[in-house]
Specification:
Elements lengths: L1 E5 L6 H8 L6 E5 L5 H4 L4 E4 L1 H11 L5 E6 L2 H11 L17 E4 L13 H4 L1 H5 L5 E6 L7 H4 L4 E4 L5 H11 L1 H11 L5 E5 L4 E5 L5
Parallel strand pairs: 1-6, 1-7, 2-4, 2-5, 3-4, 5-6
Antiparallel strand pairs: 7-8, 8-9
Helix pairs in contact: 8-9
């Protein structure tokens, strides 16, 4: 499963993503860019930097259920991606049997921005399916996210979006009519528009369906 959720600060995108998708995943690696997961997942294993994160993943390999919250720079995320989904030119041995893990990138625009990320990161969503990894992300500024990310998503969750650049990005991604329909719905309190790219289908979720 690959998906991205967009919404302005305070729109509830992370809470919705967690309740609908991530809470059901037994093994979750959260790359936290804001520090908010210290209160949301107080029982998780916290890792600071690439070395601690890799050590924590290797320690948890044989366990069926765990949560790891990692604090990583963008460059450290790129190194981790190369280890989880190695390319032929990567010498470092991959983490053993990490299939079935869900990787969540908070504020993905800071990690895989337009025009400023290595190919291994930009192709993460496409390559993850071959490694049996799920990749989810959230952003306040989808216009800053590489289109190679959003084009590979199984779903795009849309909450409150107002910035003109983000509106234009969604129009290009969904088509003008679908984007206008999605934004009109999602800008209502506690409503989510769910775009399914492969089916070119827009679902409108009410508060009771979230």
């Amino acid at each position: 499963m690959r998906g991205c959720v967009v919404g302005r600060s305070g729109s509830g995108k992370t809470v919705w993503l967690w309740r609908r998708w991530m809470s059901q995943a037994p093994r979750v690696l959260i790359v936290d860019q804001t520090g908010e997961w210290k209160t949301k997942e107080p029982g998780a294993r916290f890792a600071y930097g690439y070395a601690q994160t890799l050590a924590a993943l290797r320690e948890m390999t044989s366990r069926s259920h765990w949560r790891i919250v990692a604090y990583l720079s963008a460059d450290e995320v790129y190194r981790l991606i190369d280890v989880l989904i190695p390319s032929p030119n990567i010498d470092e041995s991959p983490v053993i049997a990490m299939g079935g893990m869900t990787m969540y990138l908070d504020e993905v625009d800071l990690v895989i921005p337009v025009g400023n990320a290595p190919e291994s990161a930009r192709s993460l969503y496409r390559r993850s399916r071959h490694a049996s990894l799920s990749v989810l992300s959230a952003t306040q500024a989808i216009s800053n996210v590489s289109k190679e990310v959003t084009r590979q998503c199984d779903f795009i969750g849309i909450l409150a979006v107002h910035e003109p650049a983000d509106v234009e990005y969604l129009r290009a991604l969904l088509g003008h009519a679908n984007a206008e329909d999605a934004l009109a719905w999602a800008n209502r309190p506690h409503h989510v528009a769910l775009w399914l790219p492969q089916r070119r289908e827009l679902l409108k979720l009410t508060p009771a369906e979230l």
